[in-house]
Specification:
The protein is an alpha/beta fold. It is built from 13 helices and 10 strands.
C-alpha cells in the first residue's frame, strides 16, 4: 500500500517521508488563508511549507492541495474568491507542480475542472460519500472519492463502491486512522466551527469546544466501547484492503507524534498504544490506561469486515478492548 500523508511542519517527519518515498503516493497540504478541515495554516508554518514542498518535489513525491473546508462563509459564491483560488492554483502548478486538489466543495471542483483539467480532483472524506448515488451525482467534477469513514469495516459496501468507481473510470480511497467517533451527530457542526476558526479567534470567544467525542469519552462507561464506535484500521490489517481500494490516507496534520503513525503504517505493525495512532488521538481521554495493539486478536478486523453491523446486539468489540486494555 502507498500512502497519502498529511503535511505537518516537522523536520523529522519531512526527512523520514523523503527517505521512505517508496511508501508515499502523495503529500496533501493546506495553502495560505484558504480554510481546510483543520483551519488555516499559520504564516510561520507557511514559510516552512514552501521549503518543504520544494524538497518533496525534488524527491519525486506528488503534491495535492487541500481545500476541504466545510464552509467558506460569505466568500462561497464570490467571484473574487474563485479568482484568487485560480491564481493560487496556477502558481502552485508552476512553482511546485501540484498534481491534485482535494475538496469538499463541488463548486471548487468544477472551477478546477474548467481551468486545470490536468489535475486530479478528489472528493474529501468530509463529503461523507457512502453509496454509489453519492458518487454518481459528482461524476462530472471529481476523479476520485474518499469513502465515508464509518464504512471502513463494511466489506460488501466497499466492494460495491469500488466497482462503481472503476466502472466509471474513477478511484476509491480510504482514510485509515480517523479518530472521529462513528456517525457523530455533531461532526458537521464541528467542521463548520473549524472552517471559521480564524474568524472565531478574532471575536474573543468565551466558550471552548473540543468536539463531541471529547465530551462523550469523558464519561468512563462510554470509554469501554471506543473500538465499537471507531473506524480506524490497524497497521497490521491494511493488507486486507489491498484489493478493496486504490490507496489509503493517513491523517497526520495535527497528531502530536506523526512519526509514530507513518512508521507504524509503513511497517505494517505497531506495538504501542492504539490511542496514539489516530487523529484526533484519544490517549489523553484514557488516563492511567492504554489499549495495547499487541493484545488485539489477529482476526479482529476480518470479523468486523464481515459482521452484521448490529452493534447494539453484539459485545465482540467491547470484549476485545477489555482484554487489550492495560492499566498503568
Amino acid at each position: 500500500m502507498k500512502w497519502q500523508i498529511g503535511y505537518q511542519a516537522n523536520r523529522a517527519l519531512v526527512s523520514y517521508l523523503i527517505q521512505h518515498k517508496n511508501f508515499v503516493s502523495e503529500i496533501y497540504f493546506p495553502w495560505g488563508d484558504f480554510t481546510t478541515g483543520r483551519g488555516v495554516i499559520s504564516a510561520k508554518d507557511n514559510d516552512s511549507l514552501i521549503a518543504d514542498l520544494h524538497e518533496f518535489r525534488s524527491a519525486g513525491i506528488k503534491l495535492t492541495l487541500l481545500l476541504n473546508g466545510n464552509c467558506y462563509g460569505k466568500q462561497s459564491l464570490s467571484g473574487e474568491f474563485y479568482q484568487k483560488l485560480k491564481q493560487n492554483i496556477c502558481c502552485l502548478i508552476k512553482e511546485h507542480s501540484i498534481s491534485g486538489v482535494t475538496t469538499a466543495s463541488p463548486l471548487i471542483a468544477n472551477m478546477v475542472r474548467m481551468n486545470f483539467p490536468e489535475i486530479e480532483i478528489r472528493a474529501s472524506v468530509n463529503m461523507e460519500i457512502g453509496n454509489p448515488e453519492g458518487i454518481e451525482y459528482l461524476l462530472d467534477d471529481f476523479d476520485s472519492f474518499y469513502l465515508k469513514r464509518e464504512y471502513n469495516f463494511d466489506r460488501e459496501r466497499i466492494i460495491r463502491l469500488r466497482d462503481f468507481c472503476h466502472k466509471n473510470g474513477k478511484k476509491l480511497y480510504i482514510l485509515a486512522n480517523s479518530g472521529c467517533l462513528n456517525f457523530c451527530s455533531a461532526r458537521t457542526f464541528h467542521d463548520n466551527l473549524v472552517a471559521h476558526q480564524h474568524e472565531i479567534e478574532q471575536a474573543d470567544p468565551v466558550i471552548e469546544y473540543y468536539g463531541q467525542c471529547s465530551k462523550f469519552l469523558a464519561v468512563g462507561n462510554n470509554r469501554e466501547n471506543l473500538l465499537e464506535k471507531s473506524c480506524f484500521i490497524r497497521p497490521e490489517d491494511v493488507c486486507l484492503y489491498e484489493d478493496l481500494c486504490d490507496g489509503m490516507k493517513l491523517a497526520t496534520r495535527t497528531n502530536f507524534n506523526p512519526m509514530a503513525i507513518v512508521h507504524a503504517y509503513f511497517n505494517g505493525k505497531f506495538r504501542g498504544n492504539l490511542l496514539d495512532l489516530t487523529e484526533p488521538a484519544h490517549s489523553a481521554m484514557f488516563p492511567g490506561q492504554i489499549i495495547a495493539n499487541k493484545l488485539i486478536p489477529d482476526d479482529y478486523t476480518e470479523f468486523r469486515l464481515n459482521c452484521n453491523k448490529i452493534c447494539e446486539n453484539c459485545t465482540f468489540c467491547k470484549e476485545v478492548q477489555k482484554k487489550a486494555t492495560i492499566m498503568l
